[in-house]
Design goal:
CapK_Type1_Caps_Biosynth, Phenylacetate--CoA ligase family protein, 448 residues, alpha/beta, ANL_N_sf, GMP Synthetase, Chain A, domain 3, twelve-stranded mixed beta sheet, four-stranded mixed beta sheet
């Protein structure tokens, strides 16, 4: 698909002469198209030029960061080095909640635009609310457009979203990220609170080419469609956000509808951190917008194949600077991508600490218990596995018909095999498993 920009000059259709907003958007897109192919060392060099600007601003205009940066050895008159940057203490959610007033800049640059508020979804149980600027939104929209262009989406088709708080409505276009530069088809919105049967019916009625929703919603929808033999003619791609996308999620979508899943890694308080590579299932860090670190237990950078904590710095929010912010996610560092992009690779995004299985021997792992492969999986409407103690899991089930004791024993053996430990496994049958207010749903949750 070749996206032709909108011209605003009468009588000129092509090449397009854009509005000031559209010209600014495509000007940035041109830069992003160039920088993605730079060598990693050049990308990092440019990042630290911008980091110096950010740290200098935070040093001079916030009480919180002035002391923190001084203690780390930062000098605004000297270019910041990776060594100095790595000494800056990690920023925790509690820091933001306790010290927000001191973190807010007293002199946001006028050209960064209007200052507003951004709030995290609260999926960690510790929501944060920060200031952000119009410039931050500008970069958010640019990365949205990059995602569309990377995956060659046809703007003339309709795009559907099933998510929290959107109601049931139809928009004229794909939203501000696209409309300032390109014409597009309509956008369709449905609230995720609608029952699954209603969601499926709505998709059948509108026949979207692209659908964006949570991975847990995709899994449930795909399972229901497989059970009932429902297809979605015209569907080109499923898009996911807000939760971890597992290989099982990708596989069940291929089975149900014959389409792939394109994922993104973002946070409300940061924006886009990584996008799925156009040619692979791993992710490229959005290095033009964030400096993302994956650190081991000693605070050192992880190497390819290692899993660590995600720490991120927003390069462009000068209203409430977020510098070395531990976002409470874990990720696995990947090898350089065969596609040729110099943007760093995340092989997997593993989720929060609450999604980690802790074992009696002191080790931890990211469980993949694959409920779709359990005995009589077609009877299971909902499942959630909860860790109650180091050696005790409870499998909560919503089922059409109760499972037999031998089925429970088979599931227990699968859990033992996957975890490598003879954990005590109990079963609890319930009428429904309630989802949190933000409708982000975890198949595995640790209460430890």
């Amino acid at each position: 698909m070749r996206a032709v920009p909108i011209s605003v000059v009468p009588g000129i259709e092509w090449p397009a002469l854009l509005s000031p907003q559209g010209a600014a958007r495509l000007s940035l897109m041109y830069q992003l198209d160039q920088s993605q192919w730079w060598p990693p060392e050049i990308i990092k060099q440019q990042q630290f030029i911008q980091i110096h600007q950010l740290l200098t601003h935070a040093f001079h205009t916030t009480r919180f960061y002035r002391h923190r940066l001084q203690d780390a050895g930062f000098n605004p008159k000297t270019r910041v080095t990776p060594e100095v940057f790595s000494v800056i203490p990690l920023l925790q959610r509690e820091d933001i909640q306790l010290h927000l007033a001191d973190m807010n800049s007293t002199a946001v640059p006028k050209d960064h635009g209007r200052v507003g508020y951004t709030e995290s979804s609260g999926s960690t149980g510790k929501p944060v609310r920060i200031h952000s600027t119009s410039l931050s939104q500008f970069f958010w929209h640019a990365m949205t457009l990059r995602d569309h262009l990377w995956h060659d989406r046809d703007f003339t088709r309709n795009h559907a979203e099933i998510r929290v708080g959107v109601g049931d409505r139809t928009g004229k276009n794909w939203g501000y990220a696209v409309k300032v530069a390109f014409e597009s088809g309509p956008s369709l919105m449905l609230d995720i609170k609608e029952p699954m049967d209603r969601q499926i019916q709505w998709i059948q009625e509108h026949r979207p080419a692209y659908l964006l929703t949570y991975p847990s919603n995709l899994r449930e929808m795909a399972g229901r469609c497989l059970e009932q033999g429902i297809d979605f003619p015209g569907l080109i791609e499923m898009r996911a956000f807000g939760e971890t996308v597992t290989e099982e999620t990708r596989e069940i979508c291929r089975q149900a509808w014959g389409v792939g899943v394109k994922d993104m890694y973002s946070a409300m308080e940061i924006g886009y951190m990584a996008l799925q590579c156009p040619g692979h299932e791993h992710y490229h860090v959005m290095s033009e917008g964030v400096f993302l670190e994956v650190l081991d237990d000693q605070g050192l950078p992880c190497r390819p194949g290692e899993i660590g904590r995600v720490v991120v710095t927003d390069l462009h929010n000068f209203a409430t600077p977020l510098i070395r912010y531990e976002i409470l996610d874990y990720a696995e560092v990947g090898e350089p991508c065969p596609c040729g992009r110099g943007l760093p690779v995340l092989k997997r995004i593993l989720g929060r600490q609450r999604n980690m299985l802790r074992l009696p021997d002191g080790t931890c792992q990211w469980p993949a218990f694959s409920p779709r492969k359990w005995p009589h999986a077609d009877r299971i409407q909902q499942v959630q596995i909860v860790q109650k103690a180091l050696d005790h899991l409870v499998v909560r089930l919503v089922v059409h018909f109760p499972l037999a004791p031998e089925d429970e024993q088979a599931i227990t053996r699968i859990i033992h095999d996957r975890s490598g430990h003879p954990l005590r496994v109990g079963f609890e049958y319930v009428d429904t498993i309630e989802k949190p207010k933000n409708f982000k749903f975890d198949i595995f949750v640790s209460e430890l």
